[in-house]
Amino acid sequence: MSFILAAGTILGACGGGDKDTGGKDNGKEAVKIGMVTDAGTIDDKSFNQGTWEGILQAKEELGIQEKYLKPAGTTEAEYLKEMGNLYDAGYKFIVAPGFKFETAIFHAQDKYKDAKFVILDGNPHSGDFKPVVKDNTVAVFFSEHESGFIAGVATAVEVKEGEAGFIGGMEIPAVQKFNWGFQQGLKYANENLGTNITLKAENVVYQGSFDNVAAGGQIAAQMYDRGVDVIFAAAGGVGVGAINEAKTRKKAGDDIWIVGVDSDQYADGIYEGEKSAILTSAMKKLDVVTFDIIKRELDGNFPGGETLTYDAKNDGIGLPEENPNLSDEAVAKAKEAFDKIKSGDIKVSGEQGSLFK
Description:
Elements: E1 19-21, E2 24-25, E3 28-29, E4 32-36, H1 47-62, E5 65-69, H2 76-88, E6 93-97, H3 102-111, E7 116-120, E8 137-142, H4 144-159, E9 161-168, H5 173-192, E10 196-206, H6 213-225, E11 230-234, H7 237-251, E12 257-262, E13 270-272, E14 275-276, E15 278-284, H8 286-298, E16 307-310, E17 317-318, H9 328-343
Parallel strand pairs: 4-5, 4-6, 6-7, 7-8, 8-16, 9-10, 9-11, 11-12, 12-15
Antiparallel strand pairs: 1-5, 2-3, 13-14, 15-17
Helix pairs in contact: 1-8, 2-3, 4-5, 4-9, 6-7
């Protein structure tokens, strides 16, 4: 899911905002790895940044040469233009973060047959949503429901008793699965760990976009006013609005929290000194996944034609390494839940079933 539609300076269509640094590997030309960003920037604390960090890790450890281009907008044509610019510059391994690239990658994999493509959180298709993953492309998905579950357990154990809420961006599977997993995590903790966290249907809201910061703040304010103690926001810029509202309330002394998404959002929640309104974050380990696929390419094992899922079993999801606002007990119970998902002792559903929305 591309939670990266936060406000940012839109750069020229020529791909201003590119980054290109040379690199050699044992005297040989470095492999060129390119990335096209979505509407956000490479320091968006979300999809773009996580992906770019994996590429930078590959530069440091594997000696690749890297470059990113930021399109002028978010249309298929604008995405394809920057893919073409990367290709023409010799960057024939191109990473695209987010479902908005689906139709662009569909066309690019045929147009540039000697290039390789990685799409995160999406399948290439012609607009009919029927996946077509060619041999020069790999599609990557994450088990958001497992990440949401672990965050739900940690939240319940930390808060103990109270009300939770969920704010989503667009009502798409990746966002929905975060929501459904979170609900299952709360339920698990209530039934097994002595917690009492309630969640009402009125406090599960999809705003309908990933970029309406003001609406995110408004929805969060309404929930907090209704007595919600902690909100899980999986909503990009809408989530930024929710975080801002939480920061304002924390500064005023309110005992409320927010749970971040995709990457560690602790820094985004800082409202005073090092204090943050972010309880923890339900993460997709985009950097790990991006690095892993680049390494497989360099090892001659590019998984072309495959659709890969990163989950608890392959450590593709989880909580941040550091969780300053979680007690040792909450961290331990979350890890226990993670290990049980990994072993198969806990099965988290990626379907709505009887859950809210």
